[in-house]
Amino acid sequence: MSCTIPNDRIKETIAFHGHVCPGLSYGIRAAELCLSRLGANTADNPVVAVVETDMCGVDAIQFLTGCTFGKGNLIHRDLGKMAFNFYSRAANEGFRAVIKPYVLGELNEEMRALMRKPELSPEERSHLAALRRAAQERIMTAPIEDIFEVGTPRTPCPRPASILESLACEDCGERTMESRTRRFAGRTLCIPCFNAVEQKM
Q: Beta strands 74-76 and 47-51: pairing type?
């Protein structure tokens, strides 16, 4: 079944991100899966997203689910995996969706081969653009179960964000969240100042 996100919302998502691409399409479908399984992100139903990649699709998840870094309910775990974890705090449930490796099949192989080339001819650039459009179309029209392997999250839902004291770094003087400070030789330092004096080399 094709994507159930309304077309106007998809256009708004593309405008928010700045361009359309296969990565953004994956994020749109991941957001669709989140909304269909956990419902809308509201005060009564707070949703948390933990993404294991920094790909384009994270913008779609942010825009469509309302999970943001600033609210503390969009968390990036830099694992380099095309995987997205979603949790409902109210229902105390969640799931992990991993993009299936062969969703795009031969399209993926052709695109990767072209993108690995140091320089493309005008014909190759045109062909790559056509392949990307075909990939987007496949992602947006495929049944959701053909795109994602859905399972149980490997980690529990992150705790809600808490307000911590800010401490002045005793080197640069900049105020730093308490949990991000380091102690070195009896002094409280921010991470960059700590790294500058602690480095072994």
A: parallel
For residue 188, the surrounding DSSP H or E stretch is: strand 187-189
List 84's β-bridge partners, or say none.
51, 97
From CA 12, how far away is CA 164, in angstroms rounded?
35
For residue 156, tell me if it sits in a domain. no
Please check whether residue 159 lies inside any domain of the structure: no
Whole-angstrom CA distances from 176 to 70, 76, 87, 158 are 16, 20, 29, 22
Domain check: are 68 and 104 in the same one? yes
DSSP state of 161: P
28 and 103 fall within a common domain: yes
* Co-location of 147 and 174 in the same domain: no
Do the beta carbons of residue 153 and residue 85 sit within 8 Å?
Answer: yes
Q: Are residues 78 and 106 in the same domain?
A: yes
pTM, entire model: 0.86
Find the largest Cα–Cα distance for the chain. Answer: 63
Question: What are 102-130's pLDDT values in tens digits?
Answer: 889 888 888 889 999 999 999 999 999 99
H helices within the chain, ranges in order? Answer: 7-17, 22-38, 57-65, 106-115, 122-141, 144-147, 191-198
The CATH number assigned to the domain holding 194 equals 3.30.60
Pairing between β-strand 93-99 and β-strand 83-88 as defined by DSSP bridges:
antiparallel
